[in-house]
Specification:
Strand order of the largest sheet: 5-2-1-6-7
Distance between the termini: 57 Å
Strand content: 15-25%
Number of strands: 7
Order of helices and strands: EEEEHEHHEEHHHHH
Number of helices: 8
Shape: globular
């Protein structure tokens, strides 16, 4: 039987000290030319400026031939089951949401993400650079998480989450020294950071 659904999944925030890991799945519903008349060919989110990512987000999120979903896995869950399992849990959740109804599908995953064997899939190293569906997912995930961290910056003033998005910058580490961790910090990551500094 012919596979009717193709999905790409990527995650963002794997290495952050604070905030959730956010995953996005994009389902292709028709023929797509992965370029934009003004923005050019689609590129991995890490190679785009924040402004360009927002422009691509607007284009992709409203594209008639794309369905997409975002999910997040909290710092608390990451601490309990580890980051790899947390990301895989998010991938499974998204795949189930976008496949549904016993339909046949194939899922492209970025890097170290994994799905259960019963879901046809393939993980591709640097998939966000090689597979356009994963690239689209990387942009939608990155913008979604950045917006989330900007909102959290207002809830936790002094930590500058709007600037570093929870990653381990010098400014973030200084805030941790001054204020200590918040409830959105990953305590397992902070303990590892402390051990490496000793």
């Amino acid at each position: 039987m012919k596979i009717r659904i193709t999905i790409g999944i990527d995650e963002v925030g794997r290495g952050a000290l604070a905030g959730p890991v956010v995953l996005c799945a994009v389902r292709q519903k028709g023929r797509i030319y992965w370029s934009h008349p003004r923005l050019g060919r689609i590129r991995d989110s890490k190679k785009l400026t924040a402004k360009r990512r927002e422009e691509w987000f607007a284009y992709l999120s409203s594209h008639p031939y794309l369905d997409w979903r975002v999910t997040r896995v909290s710092s608390r869950v990451i601490d309990r089951i580890n980051i790899s399992r947390a990301a895989d849990r998010g991938s499974r959740r998204l795949a189930n949401r976008l496949i549904g109804g016993g339909q046949r599908a194939f899922v492209w995953l970025d890097g170290g993400l994994r799905l259960p064997e019963e879901i046809a899939h393939r993980a591709v190293i640097r998939g966000d650079e090689k597979i356009p569906l994963i690239t689209a997912a990387s942009i939608l995930a990155k913008v979604s998480r950045d917006r989330m961290m900007i909102r959290l910056a207002k809830k936790f003033p002094g930590y500058h989450f709007d600037v570093h998005k929870g990653y381990g910058t010098k400014r973030h580490k200084q805030a941790l020294i001054e204020w200590g961790p918040t409830k959105i910090h990953r305590m397992t990551f902070l303990r590892r950071l402390k051990r490496s500094a000793q």
